[in-house]
Amino acid sequence: MLPAQEAAKIYHTNYVRNARAMGVLWTVFTITFAVITVVVFIQPYWIGDSVNTPQAGYFGLFHYCIGNALTSELTCKGSALDFGSIPSGAFKTAMFFVGISMLLVVGSIVCLSLFFFCNAGSVYKICAWMQLASSTCMVIGCMIYPDGWDSEEVKRMCGQRTDKYTLGNCTVRWAYILAIISIMDSLILSFLAFSLGSRQDKLLPEDFQVEGKDDA
What's the rounded Cα separation, in Å, for the pair 166 and 86? Predict the structure, then answer.
């Protein structure tokens, strides 16, 4: 059998290696998640037409396009910088919360620079709280968004049967689905960051420290 001191050193080496590998994976997935939230925010494909809709078109958080019944050309409107061009108050609120979610995730990436100045465990926990807050904001945004489906612009594309939380003849598009998936991504990343923060707090096992003191 290995002496206790040597066994503790091997354990410590493997512990550090595993923690670093998980940290690298967490960083890569956090950057990927940030890209996803930016795409979700800017892409106007949250809901869209189907074969049964009166008009062709699609809606995002703030930008939307609706077809012209005579020419079949899409007329696009809406800007994140012009709240008056957004067809529904619910869309404005959803845009606000999804935007905050995006900024929190981007902020967690900026916080990675703190690894050079602060304790790694504290940095992981800061990022974990930011990602948890991001997922909360994304949940609120996704829940509020359907409340705006009763606006006249949406009804013009989806039909008069459209109402709050009832999409009529339209369909949910990939950006909305991606937003819902990103909620789970954010929760998983935040829990992983909490775990990594706890690992950093106890990076040196107690038995390894005790053995070192005994030898001294």
Answer: 19
Rounded CA-CA distance 195/46 in Å is: 33
- Alpha-carbon span 153 to 88, nearest angstrom: 9
Burial degree of 214 (CB within 10 A; 0-12, 13-18, 19+): exposed
Q: What angle do CA 24, 27, 29 make, to 5 degrees?
A: 110
Element of type H or E holding 76:
strand 74-77
What is the sign, positive or negative, of the torsion defined by CA atoms of 197, 104, 138, 26? negative
Structure tokens at 212: 């070192």
Are 97 and 144 a contacting pair, CB within 8 Å? yes
**Radius of gyration for the chain, computed over Cα atoms and rounded to the nearest angstrom:** 24
Rounded to whole angstroms, the Cα distance separating 60 from 173 reads: 9
What is the residue-level pLDDT of the chain in tens, covering all 216 positions?
A: 456 566 556 555 665 566 677 778 888 999 999 999 999 999 999 999 988 888 889 999 999 999 876 666 888 988 888 888 898 999 999 999 999 999 999 999 988 888 788 777 788 889 999 999 999 999 999 999 999 999 999 998 888 888 999 988 899 999 999 999 999 999 999 998 888 877 665 554 444 443 444 443
pTM: 0.82
